[in-house]
Design goal:
Blueprint lengths: L2 H26 L4 H26 L9 H36 L15 H27 L4 E9 L10 E5 L11 H13 L3 E5 L10 H9 L5 E4 L9 H10 L3 E2 L3 E7 L2 E7 L6 H13 L6 E5 L6 H6 L4 E4 L15 H5 L5 E5 L2 E5 L16 E9 L4 H6 L5
Parallel strand pairs: 1-12, 2-3, 3-4, 4-5, 7-8, 8-9, 9-11
Antiparallel strand pairs: 2-12, 6-7, 10-11
């Protein structure tokens, strides 16, 4: 375990206890405080016990799996509401009190026990416990959203697309993260939705499983239920536990896994070449892999490049790949709108269709969840329709290109 990971593992419960102590002190002198203090204590105990359960289960000290609602609660609290709401509110109040003590020296007012329970006290108490309250509320909401996904229709116009492939349809499936949040019935629903599209090709761009290789059999069973021709690549989560076992399990399940490899399939009488790059995070490594894929290109086939990380597109466009499919971003996960949020803060391309000259990239939000909460970045299957870029009426009339 790295020092950074150790700091997170130890820091979350310690900071939770510090915030609990601070919030309890704020509530102690309030008439509204007693009921809030009991509720807050119960909430923090649930959070800490759930957190310990998650850690012990990950280390295989405890063999009983953590229920999805508690797992979701731990992630939402530890990664969102503790660092971005609870701690800032505690620090902000402390700095305000310190500044007030320095700048404004006023006599201390002792409150009478007979003072009635005012609305102001109730609002102040609610504000103190709001981070924990919001974490539990968001956890409940996430349970409703985790099993929902959409089918997103996109049309991609491609220059020099073989005429026979005009109207070709691709089901782009990615980032299912089969595991703690994506499992059971929703996997059958994803398969059924994919099959209903009756696409010419199904392409999967990584993160089939979430964390543990134990979830691979269920994930492979899901892919085996897809009726159309399927090709896939790996993602970073697929390699977390056992990369060798992942590759072996997928191939033994009869799934076409491409690892810096190419495969050709005939669609509508035309050769279509699928090229898949392995997972790499470094930009230079991505560039090297795309260059290696360019050497494998069949000039007689229409190429489609599969990459888990969308930044591969920068080199794919330079090397003339007409269509690249990617995932990894989850649509930004937390977005205020289409262009503002975590997506553009972390990635150059995060959701939908992007074009550079005659080259196109499609980034899917992914169909599953590693994190239980999404904001304006719904889970999805992307249904692509490829269209040939037709010449203008003037060009067709003359029968030649005008330059």
């Amino acid at each position: 375990m790295s020092f950074f990971v150790l700091m997170i593992v130890v820091g979350i419960p310690l900071l939770t206890l510090v915030w609990w102590w601070w919030a309890d002190r704020r509530l102690r002198n309030s008439k509204a405080g007693p009921c809030f203090r009991v509720g807050l204590s119960f909430a923090v105990v649930v959070l800490l016990l759930s957190y310990c359960w998650v850690i012990f289960a990950r280390r295989e000290i405890v063999t009983v799996s953590v229920p999805a609602p508690l797992y979701a609660l731990v992630l939402i609290w530890g990664l969102i509401f503790l660092p971005f709401f609870a701690l800032p509110s505690m620090l902000g109040w402390s700095f305000w009190k310190l500044a007030k003590a320095i700048l404004v020296r006023s006599p201390r007012i002792v409150e009478s026990d007979a003072k009635p329970w005012t609305r102001r006290e109730w609002l102040k108490s609610t504000a103190v416990v709001m981070p924990a309250l919001a974490a539990f509320g968001s956890g409940a909401l996430s349970l409703l959203l985790m099993t929902r996904f959409r089918v997103r229709e996109l049309t991609v116009t491609i220059a020099n697309l073989p005429p026979e492939l005009d109207g070709m349809r691709i089901a782009h499936l990615t980032d299912t993260h089969v595991g703690k949040f994506t499992k059971g019935k929703v996997l059958d629903e994803l398969v059924a939705a994919t099959n209903r599209l009756k696409a010419d090709l199904v392409l999967f761009t990584g993160d089939l499983i979430d964390n543990t290789i134990r979830d691979l059999p269920e994930a492979v069973r899901m892919l085996q239920g897809i009726e159309q021709k399927l090709f896939m690549i790996e993602g970073n989560h697929d390699l977390f536990d056992d990369a060798v076992a992942f590759e072996q399990g997928v191939r033994e399940g009869g799934i076409a896994l491409l690892r810096n490899q190419a495969a050709t399939v005939e669609i509508r009488g035309v050769a279509v070449q699928i090229l898949g790059v392995v997972w790499k995070h470094g930009e230079n490594e991505m560039a090297q892999d795309v260059e290696a894929m360019a050497l494998l290109r069949d000039p007689s086939a229409f190429p489609i490049l599969l990459a888990h990380h969308p930044h591969v597109f920068d080199w794919a466009a330079k090397l003339g790949f007409p269509l690249t499919l990617a995932g990894h971003t989850h649509g930004g996960q937390f977005m205020l709108n289409q262009d503002i949020g975590a997506g553009p803060a972390m990635f150059r391309y995060w959701s939908g269709l992007y074009q550079k000259g005659k080259q196109a990239l499609v980034v899917s939000n992914g169909a599953g969840n590693w994190f239980p909460l999404r904001v304006n970045s719904p889970a999805e299957i992307v249904h692509l329709t490829l269209r040939r870029e037709h010449d203008s009426v003037w060009t067709m009339f003359l029968g030649r290109s005008w330059k």
